[in-house]
Design goal:
The complex is a heterodimer. In chain A, 72% of the residues lie in helices and 0% in strands. Chain A is mainly α. Chain B is an alpha+beta fold. Among the domains of chain B are: 42 residues; 108 residues, no CATH class. Chain B has a 6-stranded antiparallel β-sheet with strand order 2-1-3-4-5-6, covered by helices on one side. About 4% of the residues of chain B have low confidence. Classes of the chains: A mainly alpha, B alpha+beta.
Chain lengths: 168, 219
Amino acid sequence: MPAVTASPEDGSAALERLIDSEALRLYRIALAIVDDRGDAEDVVQETMLSAWRHWCSLRNHPNQKAWLTRVCVNHSIHRRRALGRRVLWSSEQWLAASSGPVNTDGRLLDLHRAYQSLSARQRAMVALHLQDGFTVEECARFLGCRSGTARSHLGRAVAKLRKEFIHA
Amino acid sequence: MPDPRDPEDDEVIGLTRVYLTRRRGQPPPPHLEDDALRFALSPQRSKRSRGVLGGAILVVTTVAVAVAVVAVHGIRPAAVPGSTVQITRTPGLLALPPLEVTITDTQEVADLSSDIQSLPQGHELYSCPISWGTSYSLTFSSTGTPSWTAIIPVWGCGLVTLSNGPERSALNATTLWSDLGNALGLVTDQVEPYGCGAQPPPSASGTCYPTVAISPSAG
């Protein structure tokens, strides 16, 4: 397998364009998984560092968006696991930072608490499938697992949300 | 496993979407793009340095534990050729048929084991062929000896991950790919598949595979 000889310095302008177009999307995916804005920002930075380190292969990649999403999801899962079950964002903080009007019936607060109980991979499936609209098959490729496994993560996530939500 | 599209879950799914939409509406960090670019291009990354230092400590600790285990139990850390090898292919972004094969031919298993163990030690590269995330997982098993696994990426930087040793490089490992192709009954284009549209194509031969499309609703 011959190595491409171009240097990584060739593409800093292109990397800047890529960051401008993708950073916010990746940040939102990371935030949904790691649940902390500082950590989500770190994940975006690590993702872009990976992009730069693999720039010679990424620059001509037919699907840069999928490549970045996969790397971002992996970084996010690793970071979420490193954080353990620590609740980073209290319900009050979440509501205070939320852009919409405060939900008076408390259902979103209940859901926020239920969301804390999801594992890193379950959060990834919820974020990618329900938030970003990727198909289960696409999510499976991002997570590096089979479609059946991804479907299982999603099913368990929804079941856990329902259970926690009902018992809240 | 409950079906996520079961009607009784519709309320939870709908509310989850509202919840996630509310989260999306929160303003991102003010200098997200600038900070990401600076971090990627900067030669001095404090967080990365700490990570590397932590990684070095982890490696030293792991080696020390391995040496202690070998000293106590007299186990050779090098892999023993197994009597079977289970091979699974992860398609990555390529539209490839599923592949999961168990090889029981002793000679083929020994050849593959030897090919992998004789690969040179890998190191990080900046300039690599394009990668579609496709990889092979080879799990060697034999009665009475611990099993071990090698994950071999197709194209990309070719860094092979071993369950029982340091990373190795599969760049230019023609013997390994030849033996793997023979074991699987695949020709070169099939054992080292690449996506259509790559410029330049990583292989001189003509066959390529379509890549998986991403939903337009994404992002």
